[in-house]
Amino acid sequence: MEDQIDFRRMPVIHPYKKILDKAYSAASEASTTVSAQNKLLEIRIKELKRVETANEIICDYLNKIVERTPHVNLMPQYYTEIVSLAIDKEQFKKSLGAVRWAAEKSKELSTTYKKKLKGAQARDLGRIRSEYYGRQSSVLHQIRRDFTFLEDCRARLKNLPKFKEMKTVVIAGFPNVGKSSMLKTLTGAEPNIQPYPFTTKHVRVGYIEKYVQLVDTPGLLDRSLNKRNVIELQAVLALQYLSDMILFVFDASETCGYTMVEQMSLYKEMKREFDVPFAVCFNKCDLVSGDELDKYYNKVGTNRYQVSALKNEGFSKLRDFLLADALPSKKKFYQ
Known about the structure:
Blueprint: H1 16-31, H2 39-68, H3 77-86, H4 89-119, H5 125-142, H6 144-157, E1 167-172, H7 179-187, E2 192-195, E3 202-208, E4 212-216, H8 230-237, H9 239-242, E5 245-251, H10 260-273, E6 278-283, H11 290-297, E7 304-306, H12 315-323
Parallel strand pairs: 1-4, 1-5, 5-6, 6-7
Antiparallel strand pairs: 2-3, 3-4
């Protein structure tokens, strides 16, 4: 699964002339190691060695691109959505197919010209090998734009965040409501910080034991979605394909700078936009009276919890709830 989404495994894709220069230089060097008592045999073996070496380097490189490039048809839906924002997926598939074609064509050329070299007269050996070089160069020249396109894709996609295949809970709520503190308290560890595509923001990822993946989204799910540009909005909405659940955090004390009315409005907007189950956590409950909290506590459904991240109170029930059905995810993110 991880290999299907890790664009960092893609090799750097060089301009085609650089690939050819490396292959032909190595071929010339390899031919210097050949010696034979018969001069004609030595020349023939040298030219065969050049063709074999050049083909080996070129085919190895092309096959490495194909094998180590994630295939967009096999990606989980979350990554499919994100990749679609960054690149032309259809062109990506066509360019990868062009590299695959070039690898197969290069192998065919090598086979053809080695047969020619084995049956040729001495005066024709150099010409046949040069002809092979010319046709091999032509093959890579034909896909030069595909090389350029794939390298641009690699640069755009190499820093996609990596998520594990397990139950995933995305944390939402206004800034300063205590999301980061809650993540550390629930997981008992410092989170892994990763860039989030098409925004200037980062996500924080942590784990409850080895069963639940928690994703904190500072700067993402912390304000009204109508304040986003189109690309950023699509990137944020893609989180629903990652989420098995959204944990919305309220600051019951309002010390975050947002009133409970404003927080409730954001909660309702998230509920409308994200087609996933919600759980609600009221943080900083130690700073408010029960009567104040009850006005909102009874408006958010049954999966609701009162905690104090500062005092580390009330988390055992929330943690048990999140772990309760933490089997391998069967939702559309992994289909």
